[in-house]
Amino acid sequence: MLSREPSRRRMADERREPEQQQRQEVEKEVTEISEEKRGETQRNIQILRSEKAALVQEKEEFQCQLCRQATRQAAQGETRARDVERKLLEANGRARVAEEEIAKLQEWLQKSEAGARERRERSGEVEGRLADMVEAVREEERRRRQAEERVADMEGRVRVSTERQRRAEERMTEAENTRRQAEERQGDFERRVIENEQIVYRRVQQAEQAHREALRRCQLAEGRLTEETRARIECERMMQQLEVQLREAERVANNLEASTAEQQDHLFWRVDRREIHLSQQELGRGGWAAVKVAEFRGLQVAAKCLHSVIISEHNRRLFLREMNMAAKLRHPHLVQFIGATLEGEPIILTELMSNSLRDILGTRHLKEQHITTIGRHVALALNYMHQMSPDPVLHRDVSSANVLLNPGPDDGWVAKLSDYGSANFTRLGSTAGPGNPSYAAPEAADPVRQSPKMDVFSFGVLLMEMSTGQFPNRNHLQSQLRGVSLPRLSRLIQQCIDDNPTSRPTIAVVLNEL
Can you tell me where the transmembrane regions are (predicted)? Predict the structure, then answer.
């Protein structure tokens, strides 16, 4: 037992030695860490002391700056006070200058009275210029006489054309009917010539009255010579209108020279009524025609049957002319003209379309892209007609009922313009004002003023109808225009429906805007 105890102690001592070594190492590490922490703490304290000293120094500098700034502001206040005193002195000086200017103004008034006397002397020069204006009026009278001579020359041409027509009528089997037509045509032309003479006479009287008004204004307003310029511009505008009227009269005379025999040689569009098989399906009916679905040479077409109350013997020559024109027009956005009959009540055959724009507008509102697409298609068709030579072809009846539609890509539409031939014929035989009154331009009732700008006006009304979904009211177009929500279309429509034709854009310009 005694021998085991020393061994146990020895083993215990051996075990304690590593533990003591480990304890010593730990204490050494703790001592080193404590010294590092103490050194770091002292360094931090030194840093804080230096920062405190810097802050104290910065505070002192800031206080010095405040003192200097206060001193500077006080000096500025004194400077401003001195400036105010100086400005008061300057104001007193300006007051004295104003008194001197008042004295000068009084002197100027005296001089202006002398200038008035000089202006009265210059009025003599104005009278000389007025004499020049009187000479211009005489020149205009000379041009009017030349216009009358041209009208007399045209009457001679009409007599020659009448003689040619008489020789052609002798070769026709229906000589009596053709002679009556020639007499009616001649009477119509003479009436137009008389109307043109009356219009020329009225325009000359208006020009003379405008000159008298210009003279009166020049006498009343000293030195206002702008009235003379405006009067000259007005005279030039009237002369341009007279030249347009004379060209229109020459065009009518040239058209009258075309004989019926020459027209008969170009009836390539004539079809036999027996080739047309009308169905009971009616597409529409108006005051001058009914439109039905028909079959022609295996093709479904639209057949427009004209009423006999409109197609008179006098109108048949006009019908031939309009059908010849319709047969010449070919465009992807014009409803294709196929042909027409001549025996009995005429039937006009055209391409069969799915819907009309008016029917679509009655059931839905169009999107902006559809409005732009349909408007562009109609504008392309009108641009093609207006660029025909030698004279542009006018549609005269642009409306939603005459825009026909077929389904297009992306749920859209392909638009085509219809009634570009027969519409003109029917109205030549019935009414003076062409087209639907709701779409008609202000100058539509005056044949002398009709131009392609008339179709531009109707196109603007059509754009507004597509944009608002409302049928146009001719008396409230401006109020309906406020319902157009798209600014781009609103500006374009406003330009198109201007009452002054010269202020409207051409259809080519409209096409570029779309």
Answer: none
Range scoring the smallest mean pLDDT among 20-34, 205-219, 459-473: 205-219
Q: Is pTM beyond 0.70 here?
A: no
Residue 504 amino acid letter: R
Per-position b or e across 313-328, b if 16+ CB within 10 A of its CB: eebbbbbbbbbebbbe
Query: β-pairing, 413-417 with 403-407?
Result: antiparallel
What Å distances lie between residue 469 and 25, 293, 463, 475, 486, CA to CA?
Answer: 99, 28, 10, 17, 13
In eight-state DSSP terms, residue 287 is S
Per-residue burial over 424-441, b if 16 or more Cβ lie within 10 Å, else e, is bbbbbbeeeebbbebbbb
Two tokens, residue 374:
């349909």
- Distance between CA atoms of residues 177 and 171, nearest Å: 13
Cβ–Cβ contacts within 10 Å for residue 303, how many?
Answer: 25
CA distance 187 to 179: 12
Number of C-beta neighbours around residue 379 at 10 A: 26
Q: Do the bridges between strand 355-356 and strand 403-407 make them parallel or antiparallel, or are there none, so unpaired?
A: antiparallel
| Share of residues in the chain with pLDDT > 90 (%) | 20
Beta bridge partners of 90: none
pLDDT of 167 higher than 90: no
Q: What are the structural domain ranges in the chain?
A: 121-264, 273-513
290 vs 304: CA distance, rounded Å: 6
Binding residues for ATP: 304
CATH class of 273-513: mainly alpha
Q: What is the pLDDT of residues 61-99, one digit of tens each?
A: 877 887 788 778 778 877 877 887 787 788 777 777 777
Binding residues, as ranges, are 304
